[in-house]
Amino acid sequence: FHLVSCLCPLQEAECAYVLFVVAILWITEALPLSITALLPGLMFPMFGIMPSTQVASAYFKDFHLLLIGVICLATSIEKWNLHRRIALRMVMMVGVNPAWLTLGFMSSTAFLSMWLSNTSTAAMVMPIVEAVAQQIISAEAEAEATQMTYFNESATHGLEIDETVIEQETNGRTEKTKPVPGNSNGSGKVSSKMEMEKNSVTGAKYRSKKDHMICKLMCLCIAYSSTIGGLTTITGTSTNLIFSEHFNTRYPECRCLNFGSWFMFSFPIAVILLLLSWIWLQWLFLGFNFKQMFKCGKTKTVNEKACAEVIKQEYEKLGPMRYQEIVTLVIFIVMALLWFSRDPGFVTGWSALFSEYPGFVTDSTVALVAGLLFFLIPAKKLTKTTSAGDVVAFDFSPLITWKEFQSFMPWDIAILVGGGFALADGCQESGLSGWIGSKLSPLGSLPVWLIILISSLMVTSLTEVASNPATITILFPILSPLAEAIHVNPLHILLPSTLCTSFAFLLPVANPPNAIVFSYGHLKVIDMVKAGLGVNILGVAVVMLGMFTWIEPMFDLYTYPSWAPDLVNQTIP
User: Fold this and answer.
1) 516-552 pLDDT tens trace
2) Which of 161, 187, 191, 498 has the highest Cβ tally under 10 A?
3) Can you list the alpha helix ranges (DSSP code H) found in 318-350?
4) What is the DSSP string of 191-255?
5) Which helix (H) or strand (E) holds 383?
């Protein structure tokens, strides 16, 4: 603390000390993340930075209302198995060729992750993927067993013919026919040698190295696509929500970020990264054979038929679409359309109906309306039998109950985000943000693209060892004043940094989807490091590409906006 106080004024030093303590505890996870997030509520009043009532108000924002509505949707989707139906249907549409099957799983997982949490998406899809992978292996084993049976029968039939020939021909002719049985024995030796290689290389679990590679490929595809899909919507991952709330709080005059604008700039990034990740993982584990991928008019292999059968059986188990699924799907579609059309930017949105109160209606308003519908619309009638033997309805059960909602609601994330808002308010109130900005102003001499690249790489590295919400919460109070100090549009630095916060692809402990797929036992840490390093590099490259192509004109990034404070002409002590 004394070291920090020597570098900056007293109140700024006290706030920096709180920020340092919270950051260390978040990175090391010595305390639960949500408990650490409560420390600003304790330390800010003690240091005289903010009164307790003001700190407490930071722990519940518009973000939390949006989160509640989204969790209501996610609860209903998972309760009525709509997520499984969507995933299986999308996989059935792309076919069962191994490469296309992988892309199908990635596409369906990414789509679900746009609306559900990355963790629940990975946890839901992985059992289906595991069933398909094991069916591929067993089908291949059955096919090889059938081929061996056919081969042995053919060899036995050949031996019988040879014995007949031996009886009928002379001894000289007989010597010429002796190699025939020898050939069959040689084949048997080759088969035995192949079996030994299989056992010594892959063990009992995998019949061949290719089977093991298929399992690795499918696991990593699910982990990475569940993360990539979350990039596309503000509600897709907690880091997007945290950034959105921080940004709107710090820059209330900027109304450029909403559900529609976020989707417009992030969707191309997610699609490009998903395709590049698919190509990279396919090449890394199975090779990339274009001729085999785009084959036309050829019959399906045994493996492909087995995959198709498993997926078809899983889909048929769901039965016809039920009333509850239809209602959930309708609410889901209506909510998405209302989010997109609220204030799309290129046309007048429905928020213009409330022009008397500009800025009052937000995405959380839509989410709350949808969330309330899940508690109001009946899912089924509750009946009882009267003394006369009649069955009468006495009540109804809603689509979701409060108990079910509570089991899905991530209260730890809600508290964690609240702690981040309190930290940001403290940095603003104490003047620490301005002090940091003044000290970072010399970086303005660097090219903008280099500053963006450095910040993106820094965030990508930190998020591998710290949780994604903690990373964005720690860095936002640093990167915002940096952009203001060097007179660069804050979105130019904050948008790529926020997206890169989700690029935790390298380690099993980096994020929950990685841990879920790692628990199935197909992967080693070195597999994730090799694959994740490539996806991390691709992710940063695609984000950089987007920032200097289609995203730049959307937000006019080369112009310093009027809604951001101008620190260039201000004197900061």
Assistant:
1) 788 777 888 888 889 999 999 999 999 999 999 999 8
2) 498
3) 323-342
4) HHHHHHHHHHHHTTT-SSHHHHHHHHHHHHHHHHHHHHHGGGSTTSSHHHHHHHHHHHHH-TT--
5) strand 378-385
Sign of CA dihedral 443, 448, 452, 453: negative
Q: Residue 96: which residues within 8 A CB-CB, separation 6 or more?
A: 300, 304, 305, 307, 308, 311
Q: Would you give the distance in Å from CA 188 to the centre of its chain?
A: 49
pTM of the entire predicted model: 0.68
Structure token digits, residue 330: 């309708």
Q: What is the dihedral of CA 244, 245, 251, 254, to 10 degrees?
A: 50
CA dist., res. 511 & res. 226, Å (int):
11
DSSP string, 69-87: HHHHHHHHHHHTTHHHHHH
Measured CA to CA, the distance from residue 131 to residue 129 in angstroms comes to 5
Q: What is the pLDDT of residues 436-495, one digit of tens each?
A: 767 766 777 889 899 899 889 988 888 886 778 878 877 888 888 888 888 889 999 999
3-class DSSP assignment, residue 382: strand
**Which tokens go with 377?**
């619309």
Strand partners, 137: none
Amino acid at 480: S
